[in-house]
Amino acid sequence: xxxxxxxxxxxxEPAAREFFSDxxxxxxxxxxxxxxxxxxxxxxxxxxxxxxxxKANTLRQRVLSVGRGAESRIRExxxxxxxxxxxxxxxxxxxxxxxxxxxxxxxxxxAGILPPTSGEIEVSGRVSTLLAxxxxxxxxxxxxxxxxLGGLAAGLTRAEVRERYDEIAAFADLEDGxxxxxxxxxxxxxxxxxAFAVAVHMEPDILLVDEALSAGDxxxxxxxxxxxxxxxAQARTIxxxxxxxxxxxxxxxxxxxxxxxxxxxxxxxQEIVEGYTESLQVKRDAISMEDL
Amino acid sequence: MAAPVTSAEDEYLGEHHVYRPHRxxxxxxxxxxxELWRRRAFVRELARAELxxxxxxxVFGQLWLVLNPLLNATVYFFLVxxxxxxxxxxxxxxxxxxxxxxYTFFQNGVSQAAGSVAGGGKLILNTAFxxxxxxxxxxxxxxxxxxxTLPVLAVVIWLNNRSNISWAxxxxxxxxxxxxxxxxxxxxxCATLQVYNTDFKNLLPYLLRLGLYLTPILWFVVDPTTGxxxxxxxxxxxxxxxxxxIFEIWSNAIVAGVGSPxxxxxxxxxxxxxxxxVGFVVYVSRERDYAVRI
Lengths: 292, 294
Fold this sequence. Notes:
Shape of chain A: globular
Radius of gyration of chain A: 20 Å
Helix content of chain A: 25-40%
Order of helices and strands of chain B: EHHHHHHHHHHHHH
Structural class of chain B: mainly alpha
Number of domains of chain B: 1
Oligomer: heterodimer
Strand content of chain B: under 5%
Strand order of the largest sheet of chain A: 5-6-7-3-8-9
Distance between the termini of chain B: 34 Å
Order of helices and strands of chain A: HEHEEHEEHHHEHEHEEHH
Distance between the termini of chain A: 43 Å
CATH architecture of chain A: 3-Layer(aba) Sandwich
Radius of gyration of chain B: 22 Å
Number of domains of chain A: 1
Shape of chain B: elongated
CATH superfamily of chain A: P-loop containing nucleotide triphosphate hydrolases
Mean pLDDT of chain B: 86
Number of helices of chain A: 10
Structural class of chain A: alpha/beta
Number of strands of chain B: 1
């Protein structure tokens, strides 16, 4: 059994109130604009051990490999290597990089889901996550139940979730009656739309969006884009992971480029996207720039 | 509605988190438990939703919950009757059924709790919350699934064991509470094992079935007719099986209508509490790892 006792753990703060904010509507917008650090990532590395063999995490394999040096089957993945950056309030930070660059790992670390192996992450404000997998952990329960459970798990009260529910349902705009149907009956587009609706209606200070804008049809994309701009106008801090480089240029005012877990560069979205596309040796054509 | 959380030094942004690597496994317990308590509505809501999905509130849904242990008990009755050479033991049906019903709770609670982390995939990947909520909810669900068997048990006691009904039945309440703690503790441990060994779920049913045979459910520790303690192997098993004292108290109260020796209570209490604490520590010290593992 791989050693887990050395796995780091988040302890200093309740790693819990992310995802949904429990602040009354509108309070956020009345606050004076101040440029200050919202997220500070200091020399963060995240390493995990993955088994090369899918069956390695089984009792059967452990028994069969007794005396055969099973440790060689485990590989350490250094998902993030000494990454440091700071983000001020109101920044919309685009994060680009090839597959496996550590983008999603960084997002989960910011949300307090994955603890850093070394270094420190400081986050001021409520975080709402919109990671690629979306809401709906239990596909046998209805959309309504999943929204309620997600909110309760994040630490909201029932009343607070109910307060936002109608807006969420209206924004997700699922076909008739789908909110009351088990989520296993949803299409992937419906999943994505509901996830997006939940994340943006929780008045987050910091919104983490991981490749989720691609959910839904053209009409929904348009709505999602408009909502993002609305959130930006309210000077919220947004982290946007996207392979659609056009949306990084259009939506973001700052960008970082991750590669193999390392922070390659930081700059304006144009600079970063140019550098990144050059490194990929692809032209900045319609395909790589595809909007949202 | 809960008051918005604001800290004095950071009124503007409201909340402040610092995430650092942490070598020692356990998070600060006070805060962990208060975060857990703050989310008690989650337990209620998930239990309600899952029970609804299992048709709990319909007549046939409840009938099914009773039918399953009843069929099991029927199988075991014939098994034991035949192995016993056809000797009838009075009150045996009460002993068997009450034991099977309670064990079904234990079995459901442990096996559902074991799968709860692996089944909570998206929630674990996307939301930071005390992971203990997941197996806890499953124990609560198992309890609700146990409730419909109580009226059936009452009827069986009335028909089969009327003469032994006494105030001792009240002992079943604290005894069942101990069983809940025992179930939760073992459920936490199994949930952790399941995360690290994906095929643990294949092994667990065998262990739980073995547990049934090693617990005084199909057999008596103290024969209710002669009042003599079982001898040899049975006594030995009852002495070492941590689950046995809870079921001894259970049977004494329901079948014999008497209280149990203090020593049995002490053993039942110590085993339950130790298992709960060990299960809590094992689970919580590793829960930060779950998002990576599943």
